[in-house]
Amino acid sequence: MSTKPASLITLALAAAMPALAQDKPAASVTAAPVAKPAASAGLANDWLRQQSDGFKPWDIGGQVRARFEAKEGMAIQGQAGSLDFRDHGAAVNNEYWLTRSRFHVGYNDKWWTVYGEAQASTANSDMRYAYANNPSVDGTTKKLGDGPEANWIDLHQAFVTLGNQKEFPLTVKAGRQELVYGEERLIGASGWNNIARSFDAAKVRWQNDAFSADVFSGFPVIPENGQFDVDNGQDLFSGIYATMLKIPKTVLDVYFLARNSGTGAAGFAPSPQFPQPSARDIYTIGGRVKSKPGELGHWDYSVEGAYQFGDYRDARAGAPTQRLTQDAFMFVVQGGYTFADLWATPRLGLEYSYGSGDSNSKDGTHGTFDNLFPTNHKFYGFMDVASLQNLQDLRGIVQIKPTKASTLVLEGHGLWLASTSDNFYSVSGTARGGTGASPGNGYGANPNYSNFLGTEVDVVGSYAVTKFLQIEAGYGHFFVGKYIEQSLSNPAFGSKDADWFYTQITFNF
User: Fold this and answer.
1) What is the CA angle 57-58-63, rounded to 5?
2) Higher confidence at residue 119 or residue 364?
3) Residue 298 CA from chain centroid, whole number
4) Burial of 8 (0-12, 13-18, 19+ CB in 10 A)
5) Is 10 in a helix, a strand, or coil?
6) How far, in Å, CA of 215 to CA of 222, rounded?
7) Which end of the chain, N or C, is less packed with Cβ atoms under 10 Å?
8) pLDDT at 11 over 80
């Protein structure tokens, strides 16, 4: 790619500059929240309901999103020898266009609703394989396709809801749906991804003014371009997620989650565009406490922690067939201060995230935290280098809102492995390289190496042109650390920093 890092920074800041000179209603953004827009049921719904009261029970609308991404020094999945931060000898630069179009129709009655949403995801010039099959999984086949973020056309959601919480606190929701809980660190829709995530699931909710609890169970949907997406019938995900709202100045979430994946889960689909799990029965118990908005003055905080037990089996070719005892944990501590009386109401934030790694691959215990079904793009660097597995992330945040319609965010991340006896995991949860001291491609479990991965600096700006149209852009630079330098010097690949730039426009109707 010809664009140099300095020019990428200029482009990212230039895309954010219109926000400094205008004042329009805000819309939701990728990087950080801005002020809520004026109440609207959507462009199509607003117009239809103005024409006739008969459209009031209907929900008709959609979204069109287009994004350009440019990456330098980052792996192109499926391309021979391509690795994150590799300096020479393989392709590591990729530029592509993504579009995602959604159209939904819903109908709301007093005691029931029905909702359906189609989704078309396209990619152009993406050099990545749709499915790389690396590391190799039995029963699956490498597929070039149009890349891992193309899926034309499919059913994203289709569900029925029974109940009316205004009349009775119990409701039931069944069908293809998104599951979103907490900050989405463990359960989220992965909305940044061009395809996003949904489940074929059933959910029962009890909700009143003081307490809510969901009991759910279902299977994640497997995207496969060119055929109707089915769920992974070998990957059952269930849980109880409860929220208490009447604690003074505090919101408390507690949860118990179960992921039960059979031996056929990893190869359930011949060419899945998202990695499928190995056999496991992992149970997660955890909780999150956070401050209520405005209850602590200008301060805010949240603390979340979870412990996992059960068993796990590695699905990679040649790995041992016996199950390992799962013994893993995670925690996140974050806080911030908002200068409400200053121009642009700047917020300074600091966060530390820890996901455990495996300290000894031969002791019969698996210590790597299972990140489950997260939206990782929001947390561990916008370049999507890592997931909350064998990871330490120290994150600093500076956020300003120059106008009601705009946000500009600057973030810095310091990243370390939790254990050098474990792997460096990608944003999708797959391990880079194999196990053992000599994985063959540089990455892997290298106990004698440094645990310092590197630092990442990101700047992201967004601007709501109207409450229906939003533009945003961002730039990230990753400075490689000692672990990466050591890993890629052993096979003489060499290492280099990576750059990432994107610009995106979203139209909701």
Assistant:
1) 145
2) 119
3) 28
4) buried
5) helix
6) 22
7) N
8) no
CB burial readout 124-162, b (16+ within 10 A) else e: eebbbbbbbbebebeebeebebbbbbbbeebebbbbebe
Instruction: Retrieve residue 409's tokens.
Output: 């965010």
Beta carbons of 225 and 150 less than 8 angstroms apart: yes
144-179 tens-digit pLDDT: 999 999 999 999 999 999 999 999 999 999 999 999
Name the pairing type of β-strands 406-416 and 391-400: antiparallel
Question: From the CA atom positions of the chain, what is the Rg in Å?
Answer: 23
Q: Write the burial class of residue 121 (CB in 10 Å: 0-12 exposed, 13-18 middle, 19+ buried).
A: buried
Residues near 294 by Cβ (< 8 Å), separated by ≥ 6? Answer: none
- CA–CA gap between residue 296 and residue 308 (Å, rounded): 32
| The residue to which tokens 């395809």 are assigned | 195
Spell out the residues 6+ positions from residue 48 whose beta carbon is closer than 8 angstroms to its own.
55, 58, 60
Strands 170-177, 151-162: pairing kind: antiparallel
pLDDT in tens, 99-147: 999 999 999 999 999 999 999 999 999 999 999 988 788 889 999 999 9
Tokens of 146: 């149009």
Domain 5-508 has CATH 2.40.160.100: yes
End-to-end Cα distance, the chain:
35
d(CA 92, CA 86): 7
Query: Where exactly are the structural domains of the chain?
Result: 5-508
